[in-house]
Amino acid sequence: MSPTQTNEFIAVASTDEIPPGERLVVEYGRRWVAIFNVEGSYYAVEDICTHDDGPLAEGRLDGCTLECPRHGATFDIRTGKVLSAPALVDVPAYAVRIVDNQIQIAGRA
Ligand code: FES
């Protein structure tokens, strides 16, 4: 299914697939989204760094701060906000909700 509206939640994974401390990259419309489980809370951001397209899901996570593996920019995965250079632009973040054991996300697709 291809989401077309920003408020349409789409199931992208099951909670079993992402235990605490883990992450998973899923296809969401035409984008790749990294979903993180931080102590039972799920967050989703686009898997492409806004600096130079680094694969964010491969970055080191410290709490909710994600470090891009390519040049070290950091982002808050709760909001997508850029926290440190060299990236200057926030990464798109997605709303996440859990329905039964489904992880559903909504946002720009
Ligand atoms: S690509 Fe992410 S900091 Fe450069």
Describe the structure.
- The termini are close together.
- Strands 1-10-9-4-3-2 form a six-stranded antiparallel sheet, with no helix packed on it. A four-stranded antiparallel sheet has the order 5-6-7-8, with no helix packed on it.
- With about 110 residues, it is mainly β.
- It has one domain (about 10-105): Rieske [2Fe-2S] iron-sulphur domain (Rieske Iron-sulfur Protein), CATH 2.102.10.10.
- It has strands spanning about 10-15, 25-30, 30-40, 40-45, 60, 65, 75, 80-85, 95-100, 100-105.
- The protein contains no helices and ten strands.
- Mean pLDDT is about 95; it is low at about 1-5.
- Bound molecules: FE2/S2 (inorganic) cluster (FES).
- The site of FE2/S2 (inorganic) cluster has 11 residues, from loops.
SSE diagram, text form:
Layout (H helix, E strand, L loop, with lengths): L9 E5 L8 E6 L2 E8 L2 E6 L13 E3 L2 E3 L6 E3 L5 E3 L8 E7 L2 E5 L3
Antiparallel strand pairs: 1-10, 2-3, 3-4, 4-9, 5-6, 6-7, 7-8, 9-10
This protein binds FE2/S2 (inorganic) cluster.
Radius of gyration: 13 Å
Q: Which CATH architecture is right?
A: 3-layer Sandwich
Distinct bound molecules: FE2/S2 (inorganic) cluster
Order of helices and strands: EEEEEEEEEE
Proportion of β residues? 35-45%
Give the oligomeric state: single chain
The chain-level mean pLDDT equals 94
| Number of structurally distinct domains | 1
Main sheet attributes: strand count, strand direction, barrel closure: 6 strands, antiparallel
So how many helices?
0
